[in-house]
Every structure is written in C-alpha cells, then in structure tokens.
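wait is this the right file?? whatever heres the structure
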C-alpha cells in the first residue's frame, strides 16, 4: 500500500518492520460489508471445508460482500493457502519456484509475455 492509502504524507518513510506492522494492523481492523474480519476470512478460506472446495472458497472471499476485504486478492490469499496447507495446495508462484531452483529442483519459472 502507498502512504496515501494509510493517510500519510508522500514523504513519510519507515523501516520494513514498521511498514509490515502498519499493514498488519490496518488489515486486522478491516471488515467486510457484512462485518467479517481478516481472521474469520482466513479461517474460512484455509480450514472451512474439504480441499476440493478451495476454489469456491477462494472465489467467495474475493468476490462475495460477506467476505471480501480491501487489498486482499486471489494472489495473496492463494499464496497463504499454499503455505498453510502445502500437502493439499502446494505453494507455487515465481518466488517459490526461484527458491526451489536454488535448492536444485528443476522447476519452470513463469513469465508474462
């Protein structure tokens, strides 16, 4: 998020740790239009049903007004699912693929044309 997103002046600077805390606090305070918070959203998304239903839950938390929160999209939520339940949903994005390659695994990197 930009400084403007937090209501801070453009010239505001802080460390990565401070930025991370600010974002975590900001997300923790967000609510869907139906009053759901980030903790409820993550619990529902990650543990709210059988593994084959993940696509439906991911769609719900990114589109349904009961769940949808600002600045939490399918990419970041999908990555959270992959890290929380790697046996069911292996985390596979370019950052992970680069780490796997560095460990000697022959995996393909994804590039946009």
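ok assuming it is, sequence goes like this
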């Amino acid at each position: 998020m930009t400084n403007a997103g937090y209501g801070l002046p453009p010239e505001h600077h802080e460390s990565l740790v401070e930025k991370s805390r600010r974002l975590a606090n900001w997300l923790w305070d967000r609510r869907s239009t139906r009053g759901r918070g980030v903790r409820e959203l993550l619990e529902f998304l990650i543990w709210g049903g059988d593994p084959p239903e993940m696509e439906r839950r991911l769609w719900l938390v990114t589109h349904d007004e009961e769940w949808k929160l600002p600045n939490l999209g399918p990419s970041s939520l999908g990555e959270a699912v992959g890290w929380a339940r790697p046996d069911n949903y292996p985390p596979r994005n370019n950052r992970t693929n680069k780490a796997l390659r560095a460990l000697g695994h022959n995996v393909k990197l994804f590039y946009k044309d």
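The chain is about 50% helix and 0% strand. so i think its the right one actually
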